[in-house]
Amino acid sequence: MKTENQKAWFFVLPVLILVAFNALIPMMTVVNYSVQETFGDNLFFWEGLTWFENLLRSERFHAALGRQFLFTFLILIIEVPLGIAIAMSMPRKGIWVPFCLVIMALPMLIPWNVVGAMWNIFTLPDIGLMGYFLNHVLGISYDMTQNVFAAWVTIIIMDVWHWTSLVVLLSYAGLVSIPEAYYQAAKIDGASNFAVFRFIQLPKMKNVLTIAILLRFIDSFNIYTEPFVLTGGGPGNSTTLLSIDLVKIALGQFDLGPAAAMSLIYFAITLLVSWLFYTLMTKDDVRS
Amino acid sequence: MAKITLSQLRHSYFDQPRGPEDYALKQIDLDWHDGGAYALLGPSGCGKSTLLNIISGLRTPSEGRILFDDQDVTHLPPDQRNIAQVFQFPVIYDTMSVYDNLAFPLRNRGVPAAQIDKRVHEIAQMLEVEEMLNLRAAGLSPDNKQKISMGRGLVRDDVNVVMFDEPLTVIDPHLKWKLRSKLKELHQRVRATMIYVTHDQTEALTFADQVVVMQDGEIVQIGTPVDLFERPAHTFVGHFIGSPGMNVLPCEVKEGGAFIAGQQVALEGEIVGGKQGQTQIGIRPEYVSLGSDGLPATVKKVADVGRHYVVDAMMGEQKVSAIIKQDVPEPGQAVHLQFKPEQTRLYRDSWLATAAREASAS
Amino acid sequence: MQKRSIVTITYIVFLLLPIYWLVAMSFKPTNEILGGFSLFPQTFTLANYKVIFTDPTWYWGYINSIIYVTLNTLISVAVALPAAYAFSRYRFLGDKQLFFWLLTNRMAPAAVFALPFFQLYSAVGLFDTHLAVALAHTLFNVPLAVWILEGFMGGVPKELDETAYVDGYSFPRFFVTIFVPTIKAGVGVAAFFCFMFSWVELLLGKTLTSVAAKPIAATMTKTASSAGYELGLLAAAGTLTIIPGAIVIYFVRNYIAKGFAMGRV
């Protein structure tokens, strides 16, 4: 049991000060900008909720948000099942385990812009390994700077390459924590492989999978650097995701008001979806 | 239900065992009768869980055969052997209800729903878990979880043998007794062969009709609880069973008699077997008494354990324990130890080496 | 068994291919790269690496990155340790709300903070310093470190604390000499994730620096756009950014899977 102790606040104080400095001041700045208009020289005029109204009516915003959701949806339905499948096919013990784990963790430790640059080099139509292979060996016309579909396929594959390992590692950790006796009991009970997966492995992976999906949602919804470096949002605006658009407006055009309003809506959506998802996935636990 | 025969069973966890020390199980030959209650007793690492897993089919032995009713099942997978196993830690399917847990083995075998329903209720009633049938199994207490995993074994009416692998490990002490008597009662009701693996002598002796004592991958004695207590075939059995265990005292053998510190000690019967080997006398503390003559010793410690006293006396460097009811000596007091002749046995190289007395054989 | 391992092997090959291509590219001279496709470097050259190790704008990029990443890891873990202890051992007014609020910061899109951070750190005179980037990254790393450490601390029985007090340890001495060593795996995992985020993040690192503290990642982006297509150089620089990550994973390899799960990251 935890004991009641208000002095514990002193332990939390450094964190509080640091995070408050980093989160509250910028947040207040953003809220402040979102309801004002400026023409430079630090002159601000009250605008009320105009920016929010404009934004919610803007087709550019709808399109970016739509692309963002599509991207997140696609990588989730690919990476989660794929990650589980790979985790299940990995050896449980032996000398290959640390080897697999190290290689799999590697992509996650490469700076995001390097990931983008690496995939750029990899997919160059005539001199990249993948580009050359597709164009000259398989004879499929592939150039992601020209073709929207190719660009989308490339950013999806890049994200699968970059982040599936997160799902693998989490699922794997869930899998190895299942005691051998469960498999033995299932064998004796005559359970099929599917039943073992459905009634033993999946329930035991549920907690880590919740976290994996939550993190994959947050990170893919907030993704910026990799697709920006790889496609620059193109061809056209076809891969301009929400964050890319936001940075364009905020740091490129210095439209502080619209950018701030967009930031707030963006953050609100992230929080809302995360909260909904988390509540949904943990509902069962609360009941029992 | 079936008779179980283990024939020349050996098992090694190495691919190419180089010698006897590489074997987790050394040569096991054993017959288990249909409907019996057996216990496999031994310290951790003696090979009893390996043996259990070989019987259930979770492991294939390196050598030898397993027969269920004279049918060779050595290479059959567990689900085709019609066995049930209860593990050390309760294994239940967390996401299912208690009902679904109990129905699971039957559903996997394609039993009609009506029959499943009838059987599940029967078993639930037997285990006294009827009112929990609709609860999620994950929320149950450990003893109820263990009951459910037992129930999953018993729900099939074609079970040959039910095996228990130290099933009471995670159960609270005051519930252990209750669950153990439930087990005994179940055995009488379903009459299935039951094998109970444990390192706890009380559990083994109270549950089983026949106890198999194992050490280092070998069976050292098979017998009723009384046999094991009265006539241990091996000093290990004497030592492992009983509290405190049997006194094992080095002795000298000459002219057909046994001598400790120059004094002859009367034995239960004639010394049998060869002349070679290290000899020891085994005598249970229950049969050691204090008297005016006998082997001289000095009392070191007296412990009051409730119903009787345990006296530790030193015979030179050798400790001897005695259980007495009255006339308790003081520590430091000089005493004489007397051994009850019909319970005094000679062991050569740890194995029993005296013939049973005619009278005590009855 | 054989059939199953094909999935793992295929995945590992898929992971290694782009990395191989980057490394192979870094050993090719520019005219070979642009001249056509070759699976292995035909003319093996270290020229690209030589540029990086002799040109200060390049190698300072690495030094800058390492400085702020280290700084960030130290700050994050140091402030997170006592906070995680408070969350794992005590109940106090607003503890749950505070914990949740901390975690919401982990969910914030970095893009949202780019502009306000630029203004904030300019205002306090920290713009273009290592400390600015290190502090900015704590917004994401401190909540994470608190979360991970709290998970590990929850696994340490409270009796350890009580025994230490009975033995006459003061709290600071107990915390530093007994408690922290007990959860050193947790500290390692937390430090690993702080390192990981701070090392891979670019948007904030680029926004908060211009010259003096510019991270390697930003140097690369600049080269890519200004000097045309110096692919070999870019590949060499990229290859070098993989090495610190690889070294760090090697050290925590036994804790990765467990850490991911236990730290609930």
From TrEMBL, chain B:
InterPro entries: AAA+_ATPase, ABC_transporter-like_ATP-bd, ABC_transpr_FbpC, ABC_transpr_MalK/UgpC-like, Mo/tungstate-bd_C_term_dom, NA-bd_OB-fold, P-loop_NTPase, Transp-assoc_OB_typ2. GO terms for molecular function: ATP binding. SMART domains: AAA. SUPFAM superfamilies: MOP-like (SSF50331), P-loop containing nucleoside triphosphate hydrolases (SSF52540). It comes from the Bacteria. PROSITE patterns: ABC_TRANSPORTER_2. Residues 4-241 form the ABC transporter domain. It holds the Pfam family ABC_tran. Belongs to the ABC transporter superfamily. This is ABC transporter ATP-binding protein. It comes from Maritalea mediterranea.
